[in-house]
Amino acid sequence: MCGIAGILYKRGNTDAAVGKALIDMLDGCQHRGPDSTGFALYHDAEPGHFRLRFYIGEGKEAETTVAHIKDKLKEFQAETVREAREGCTYAVTVRFSGDLQKFAYDMEHVAKVFSIGASLDIVKDIGGAHDVDRTYHVEKFHGSHGIGHVRLATESDVAPDASHPFWATGFADVAIVHNGQITNYWKMRRRLEKRGFAFNTDNDSELIAVYLAEKLSQGRTLEEALRDSIADLDGTFSFLVSTKDEIGYAKDRLAAKPMVMFENDDMIAIASEEVSLNKLFPGQALNTLEPPPGTYRTWHR
Amino acid sequence: MASIDLTSVTVRDANERIRACGEKGEDVEILNPDARHHIGVGLVHPITVRVKGSAGYFCAGLSDGPRFVIDNNVGWGVADNMLGGSVVVNGNAGAIAGVAIRGAEVVIKGNMGSRAGQVMKAGTLLCAGNANFMAGYMMYGGRIVILGDSGDKVGQDMTGGSIYVAGKIQALGTDAKLIDLPAAEDDELRAFLDRYKIPFRAKFQKIVNAGKHLRYPRTEPRVRVIPFFIASGDQSYWNAKVQEDIHVKAEIGRYRIRGYGAARPVPHLSDLAFRKDMSRIPADPAMTEKVNLRTSIGGRSGAKPLALSMPVMIAPMSYGALSKSAKVALAHASRLSDISENTGEGGMSDEQREAASQLIYQCLSGRLGWNIHDMRRANGLEIYISQGAKPGLGGQLMAKKVTKEIARIRGIPEGIDLRSPSRHPDVLGADDLVIKVEEFREATGYRLPVSVKLGAGRVRDDIKIAYKDGFDFVELDGLQGSTGAAGNEVLEFVGIPTLSAIQEAIDALAEIGAAGQMPLVLMGGIKDGADAAKALALGAHAIGVGTGAILAGGCIACLQCHVGQCVVGIATQDPQHERRYNIPVEAQNIHRYLESIRWQLAALAHAHGYGDVHQFKRDDLVALTPEAAAITRLPYEPDLRQRDRAMLARAS
Q: What confidence category does residue B651 fall into, taking pLDDT thresholds of 50, 70 and 90?
């Protein structure tokens, strides 16, 4: 139960104020989800490097967790390039070459992984868009694209690790924000688990992320993966997915959850409500579009 | 003309100013609307409001009379529940455009989103572009005109009204059919288009209800008692009740519909006892004076709370399920006992408003009888999500009770087997609910408490959502709650008992650090002051009585409420039967019953040494059965049952 937002700048613009735009859009629909706010941001990739962000909590326990993370990184011969403690998280950039899925699953045993990717960094915490910005300095982020989410917890806890966006555990650079409820969650999850994929929450949004990432890893395009998702997933949903070069949306066949988009030559912005889009263009009457039920689309940066 | 710039004025202040302009007859323009929600809601004067940009959700909602012009787009639910007046949208409209309108004219120059005109009752919704999925879903009347393509499932489960489509009909919805368009109607449509200066030449196709889902093929028979064989020993398996059930099902070929609530034994407040031995405490005739019973409820968000003389409310019951006379007697009794009455589904009658001193006005999924004028004269507003008797289902009102008068107040066709929608058109999640509650508050200037009625199902999650969505209080209704008509299996087996419900609700609030911060009104099988005192001790702030009040007011509990031929004139709309109901006498009976609850509450509080009824606490209680102990985590003390029996024996 939430609000979602996403933005992508076209024509090779990789220095747009994506952080500021997402903060404004999410602030505009904070009434849809006062509990927590999160962002999936895409930095420039450095060859051979991965960005990792862990949820470590606070206090003494956090210290121990960081120590465990460092041990585990050593075990995988992942060499730390940069590291930082921000809010309840530990962000570290490592040089790593190897089986990323195994690496990710093993890291999960040490601490909750928010994201791993060559570009992707997921920042999420309790509070509103501006609260999260104060701790994580999202506004400073410039890039080509990103997605974000405000959450009203309904069936699970109010906690940083229950917040969105969700990373597609084990698949670099895939993130999702979702508004709605997947009703065949357990069926789909068991199907993916049988094929060896691990789930780290009971949140249906993680399922969408893993589902899409698995399709991508089999060589399907993001667009094809989204088309399949509308047929395979039951329930009410409007979701946004992002990879290192693309963003896309899918909307269920019942059109139960809102979504509005605005596109011009420079950018595409998608949000739960037009009020978020107008935050980017105050005082302007926008030519927006509400995607029809059962549709999907992607945009490349 | 007044000019309001939303970059410097909040929507709340803007709405106050728009309403003030309405009273003066001055037109208004809104600058920099930037798709903000709730612009112009609650307006009841015929002024023109020009929105210079896009508006968000519920623009012009809950209004009667004004003319709105929006230069660009609107979000969900434009003109929600608008009675009279007009809205012209020059851009596109989001989902449920024209939801529940009852006479307004809504013109969308661009495209409109899904479920346009859902549960509309009268008026015209015109879309010059294309409509989306399920236009006219569950509409009861009025007309939808679509100049472009219809979208999928157009007219899905429509009950009345007409849909005219000039473009392609993608697919008809369930129970919709195409018929020939009479020439006179074609002329009317073109006159309407001319009036709004929309040039148009193509031909219209007309869609109406096919009538296959409006009535149950067979109605419930009257039940006659036929003797069943007497077995030696236990008859818990095959018995006269089971026999009757099979006979009826053999006739109607479906689930049975009946009145009242769950009739099987479930753990309840009667499985709890007060720890304290009160047998030696002398009764004090003046104790209702000495114990403070006054209860304020509904002020959590700054609205004017209800001021109850004791922590008791009349539970919501509809005018429709009950006769107007029964509703008036309940309202009158609530005034005599200085507590609150609740309209339930189906609207507010003048007589009921007159009789009750404090009246809560309920909004249900079908928006039957819901309107801004009655909102303004209510003392509290309540959004119904579900009820204990049938969580997850909408109301049912069988054809015999859908008389001309009931059809008029609800805005539906006469004589249908009315099944209200199971969910609200504009509340598909907790996120939408926030915006809906805000609409009620905006429309009434934040003066009235807004509560939510929840049937006990997923109480733990639901209560947390209710807290976050800012409700002033929750009416929590357990499995034992009654209704005028529902499927028997649903009544018996869907939902959780009242006792479990209150415990889960209390735990839920504690889990999110909000213990005691949102009052809970417990209902569902609460029959007397002892039950009420136990409910308060468990953590309820007040209780509701429905079945008890009806019984006090003459109900003979034949369970045939759905048939509509109630012999005592309570659950009927037939004047012949209703004539038997003596309002002043029954109002006094209900009042005396309510006073007995007051006396018991005071006596129990007094016996505990409390000066205030809200001093009851969990530690005052013990559980008499292992089930009740498991549910409430109270100590299991079966021996106290003996003490109670001994006390009763002494008393008799």
A: low
pLDDT bin (cut points 50, 70, 90) of residue B219 is confident
Q: What is the CATH number of the domain that holds B319?
A: 3.20.20.70
How many other C-beta atoms can be found within 10 angstroms of the C-beta atom of residue A294? 16
Q: How far apart are CA B236 and CA B239, in angstroms?
A: 7
Helices then strands (H, E): number in chain A? 8, 15
Signed CA dihedral, B596, B310, B262, B510: sign only: negative
Asked if the Cβ–Cβ distance from B92 to A290 is below 8 Å, we say yes
How much is the mean pLDDT over chain B?
94
- Domain span including residue B30: 2-209
Task: Judge if B187 and B315 occupy the same domain.
Answer: no
- Which value does ipTM take for this structure? 0.91
The pair of three-digit structure tokens given for residue B347, joined into one six-digit string:
């609207």
Is the same domain home to A50 and A199? no
- Told to judge if A2 belongs to the known catalytic residues of this protein, a careful annotator would answer yes
Pick B133's closest partner by Cβ from A181, A255, A272. A255
Determine the residue of chain A that is closest to B33 in CA distance.
Answer: A283
If you write DSSP's letter for every residue of B306-318 in order, what string do you get? EEESSSEEEPP--
| Cβ within 8 Å, pair B429-A257 | yes
Both tokens assigned to A294: 């059962």
- CATH number for position A279: 3.60.20.10
Predicted TM-score of the model (pTM):
0.94
CB B516, CB B536: distance < 8 Å: no
Residue B420 to residue B485: CA distance in whole angstroms: 12
CA distance B431 to chain A (A): 5
Task: Return the residue in B30, B34, B133, B149 with the most chain A beta carbons within 10 A, the one to mutate for interface testing.
Answer: B34
Chain B nearest CA to A260, separation (Å): 9
Q: Record the tokens describing residue B39, joined without a space.
A: 């612009």
